[in-house]
Amino acid sequence: MNVENMPNIAIKVLAAAVAVALGFGAQASWYWPFGSDGDDSSRGQPRLSELMEAASEAIDNASDLASDGKIEEAVAEYKRALVELDKVERENPERAATPEFATVRNKRAIVNASIDSLYLSQARDNAKAVAVTDTTELEKRYAEMMASRAAQPGAEKQTSGMPKTENQLDSYMKEERKHAKAVAAEAARVKREKVLGELVEKDPNGRKTRLMQAGELLRAGETAKAIAKLDSLLAEDSDDVAALNMKAVCEASSGDAKAAAVTLNRAISANPRDYHAYYNMTRLVMQTSGKKGAAKRYYDTGRAVGGPEDKELEKLFE
């Protein structure tokens, strides 16, 4: 069965809304609808993203100011972001000790690197008036700025280990981003492990427990075992949309795109008003046939039934 010949459900559903990024394969993860990955561990506490709203706003402002060439104003906003990040840790001491708050620490490091990058850029601009063939004047001015910054309260914490040249800064930023992703992935794994442990203790044979176990098998690359567990769920309820979506993930990850397409069509038939299968089908069509028109019809249908806007999927149609 060719993906492009699948029945077009898009014209059957009307409405408007928005998408979440999906993908399949070893490096990507599809979306399956069984809560937020089992995430109910915050127990009423505000999300970290909410706590960092003020810092994120300051960072966005700083980025805009830097783009306009307003270096001093940008640096001031970045420093405000540092104050807000310190406040988040100070006001949440228990959570600050967990892997979750590695995001705060990494964001602080990136903000510091951004400040240094702006100082370096300003030093370079100031040095343009000096006709030199090396970076002596540039490094001198940059050193003066760093010395001025070091004299500020709390500067030791902010300047420790920071790079001194642009190439070093680029390398440092790449490593920081890589490290931040690794920390975030580990924090997510720890959270999932905790939630799954609680589910197993509370309801070891429950559907949500088995579904999350299948998800962990999929993440570990054990797709055959994951499919076996999902098939047992589908034997009990053939219209389990969450299990069908995840089974399609397993099939696509194993290289069986045709089987994944059949499974996603089953999910669509089981619940035509659930957007997850439409988004997964969008990704599948793009990665198997590359036909943007067919893929976009599935995406538009997902949006029509209430799916959130997905910038990553939309980029596929450009």
Secondary-structure map:
Layout: H1 48-51, H2 53-67, H3 71-91, H4 93-96, H5 102-127, H6 136-150, H7 155-159, H8 166-202, H9 207-219, H10 223-236, H11 241-253, H12 257-270, H13 276-288, H14 292-304, H15 311-315
Helix pairs in contact: 2-3, 3-5, 5-6, 5-8, 9-10, 9-11, 10-11, 11-12, 11-13, 12-13, 13-14
Would you summarize the structure shown here?
Helices cover 67% and strands 0% of the residues.
Which regions are unreliable across 5 or more consecutive residues at pLDDT < 50? Answer: 1-29, 32-43, 127-135, 157-164
Mean pLDDT: 74
Structural class, judged by helices and strands?
Answer: mainly alpha
Extended strand count: 0
Strand content: under 5%
Shape: globular
One letter per element, helices H and strands E, the order comes to HHHHHHHHHHHHHHH
Report, as a whole number of angstroms, the end-to-end distance: 27 Å
The percent of residues in helical segments reads 55-70%
Radius of gyration: 25 Å
Largest sheet: none
